[in-house]
Write a structure and sequence with these properties.
The complex is a heterodimer of chains A (300) and B (354). Chain A has 300 residues and is an alpha/beta fold. Chain A is built from eleven helices and 13 strands. In chain A, α4 crosses α5. Chain A is globular and about 55 Å long. In chain B, 75% of the residues lie in helices and 0% in strands. Chain B is built from 15 helices and no strands. Classes of the chains: A alpha/beta (300), B mainly alpha (354).
Chain lengths: 300, 354
């Protein structure tokens, strides 16, 4: 059974008069699965994620958590099973990183209880796992955007949830931390966490190797395995840019999505795609071999 | 990952804000000693100087069979004048400091005072109206309490009318209701008898512990102790709300419920403070800041710290209010005279980290 199911979901911000943010959304994510949500800015990815974890109430349709409707569970029961990592954060007070991560223990505490020694241990473990243990005593107002995201990730792990909802978890991170987060996501999926994440990096979908859904103009326009969904044709339709999907060709199955500038687009694509029709991946994949240094040199 | 710290941050917060458990407890013990010293001074100092040994014997005689070889006036001064005043000072000081801390956390704004939702102006209007109509102390206190609750109730209701759970709406509603009640208070002053009732209103408003009697303390004590206890129990949850409502909800908090309980408790505390001591400003704004300098922003530690600081501070200020000049200085004026410069200093010193 899927762990989180979305049925005919539609949402509109009050006063509910304008067009829907999205409608007819149907999704199901199983334990150990990563669902990667792509889509242009402002298509409602964040709104969808907030509906998934009960922060917003959908106008139509419903979200099921292991078969029981989310609307009927209180925030505490939801928070025991769903950890949510928001996109950005501003704090009014200089809480220490460890205090913030400790807040993740909240759903497991009684209404008047304060965190115990065990809760502190869980928080420390979560910080260690994300790699922010060294920041434990840092006041949060001195954190960079990327550090904030890692701290909020640790806070979500401290909730000991089964499902993680991540809103653009890699968007403020440097390359090293991006890969650390994606490795973490993969590792968590291997431990049968269910992960739903919104992102602006089509390429990262190949790294997390789950399923991809593309949200555009209120609907999911494409849904499936990364190799099926992330194609030049789809990306052109969604983002209006030319891309090339290449396989690394070093024996691994790894693919990469390479965006092209306007000028270099058609010619390069035509040359690269050879005889096959553009966009018919995976058969149309190129194998990147010795061409890499040439391409890199041309880029600058 | 970069590990460099901003130059301002490396200085101020580390010492106090990130106190270890041990230094936290040391600070608590020192604050308790401060409160105790304030109580002792509050009972001994005054126009009639009574030495501490005698004060102690007078107090003990209430519970132990001691020879009462002291003048009855002395016992009366200690038991009927100073003791209620000191107790009221402790309750009002702790209550205002704790409700200020809770409101600052709730509104995620370190510039918020307990009067933000219009408690003070509502209570002031209630008191002014009661002085105009009856001019009896009991009625004034009841009307002040009711006025304070009414103002906050209106603010809360008004923010609901806008169908938004945003904290900002609550603050704006508080401003609207506050100015409405202050206009009404001016109206009452305008129609009051300028020889008799108007001075009474003018003297009541700035706040004083002057007319606190033993009965008042006994009646008001639960109005302070119950909400203080609730806020102390909820203090860790206030941290969650201080991260923002959406985060708090994602972390499993019933935000609406918790917010409501915190607003009720902080309001009852403030209204009770106004009803026995008039409008005493600045404590609820400045004490939480001083507390943050000592123990950091974690409400788990900050709430009890602020409570002790507020209690000791108000008793001390009250001693100055009644001994510095031949006539008593209204305590609200003194707390503002002390509070404004202290706050200006804190803003300068602490602008990078609250």
């Amino acid at each position: 059974m899927s762990r989180i199911t979305v049925q005919n979901l539609a949402f509109n911000y009050p006063p509910h008069s304008g067009p829907m943010v999205f409608e007819d959304i149907n999704l199901a994510v199983a334990p150990g699965e990563v669902l990667f949500i792509l889509g242009p800015n402002g298509t409602g990815k964040s709104t969808l994620l907030k509906c998934l974890c009960g922060l917003l109430t959908p106008l139509k349709g419903r979200v099921l958590l292991e078969g029981s409707p989310l609307a009927r569970l209180g925030p505490q029961r939801i928070a025991r099973r769903i950890g949510y990592v928001p996109q950005a954060h501003v704090a009014a007070f200089p809480f220490q990183v460890q205090d913030i991560v400790l807040m993740g223990r909240s759903p497991h505490l009684g209404p008047l209880a304060a965190p115990s020694r065990r809760d502190r241990a869980v928080a420390a473990e979560a910080m260690d796992r994300v790699g922010v243990l060294g920041l434990a005593a840092r006041p949060c107002q001195q954190l960079s955007g990327g550090e904030w995201q890692l701290v909020l990730m640790a806070r979500a792990l401290a909730q000991e949830p089964q499902i993680l909802i991540l809103d653009e978890p890699t968007s403020h991170l440097d390359l090293g931390n991006q890969m650390r987060i994606l490795e973490l996501v993969r590792g968590l999926a291997d431990q049968s966490y269910t992960i739903v994440l919104a992102s602006h990096f089509p390429d990262h979908a190949f790294l997390t190797s789950g399923r991809v859904a593309i949200l555009k103009e209120r609907r999911i326009v494409s849904h499936g395995r990364p190799e099926e969904v992330i194609t030049p044709a789809t990306l052109r339709a969604v983002y209006g840019v030319e891309t090339r999907i290449v396989a690394l060709g070093d024996g691994s199955r790894r693919r990469a999505c390479v965006p092209l500038l306007k000028g270099e687009g058609p010619a390069a694509c035509a040359a690269g795609a050879g005889g096959t029709a553009r966009g018919e991946a995976p058969s149309g994949d190129e194998v990147l071999g010795p061409a890499i240094p040439v391409a890199a040199a041309r880029g600058h | 990952m970069d590990t460099d710290q901003t130059p301002s941050g490396s200085r101020s917060p580390e010492r106090g804000a990130f106190a270890t458990d041990r230094s936290f407890w040391r600070i608590q013990v020192m604050l308790m000693a401060f409160v105790l010293v304030a109580v002792v001074l509050g009972l001994t100092l005054g126009r009639l100087r009574i030495e501490w040994g005698l004060v102690l014997r007078i107090l003990l005689a209430q519970v132990l069979p001691l020879d009462q070889n002291w003048p009855a006036t002395m016992a009366a001064v200690v038991l009927d004048v100073r003791l209620p005043r000191v107790l009221a000072g402790l309750l009002v000081g702790a209550g205002l400091a704790i409700s200020g801390t809770a409101f600052q956390g709730l509104f995620r704004n370190p510039l918020v005072s307990p009067h933000i939702l219009g408690v003070a102006t509502g209570a002031g209007f209630g008191a002014a109206l009661a002085i105009l109509l009856w001019n009896r102390l009991l009625m004034i206190q009841v009307a002040a309490f009711a006025g304070g609750l009414l103002a906050v109730g209106l603010s809360y209701f008004l923010s609901r009318v806008y169908r938004s759970s945003q904290m900002l709406m609550l603050v704006l509603a508080g401003i609207i209701v506050g100015s409405l009640f202050s206009a009404l208070t001016s109206l009452v002053k305008y129609v009051a008898d300028p020889m008799d009732r108007m001075p009474a209103i003018v003297f009541w408003l700035p706040g004083s512990l002057n007319h606190v009697a033993r009965a008042d303390v006994a009646v008001a004590a639960p109005l302070f102790l119950v909400p203080m206890a609730v806020l102390v129990l909820l203090r860790w949850r206030i941290n969650l709300l201080a991260m923002g409502e959406e985060d708090a909800r994602a972390l499993g908090l019933h935000t609406e419920r918790t917010k409501f309980v915190i607003v009720i408790c902080a309001t009852v505390l403030t209204a009770a403070a106004v009803c026995i001591a008039g409008i005493i400003g600045w404590i609820g704004l400045v004490i939480p800041h001083l507390g943050r300098l000592l123990v950091g922003p974690d409400n788990q530690r900050l709430i009890p710290t602020a409570g002790l600081m507020g209690a000791g501070y108000l008793v001390m200020v009250d001693i100055i209010a009644r001994t510095a000049l031949p006539t008593e200085i209204p305590i609200g004026i003194l707390t503002a005279l002390v509070g404004a410069p202290v706050f200006a200093y804190l803003l300068r010193k602490n602008r990078s980290a609250w």
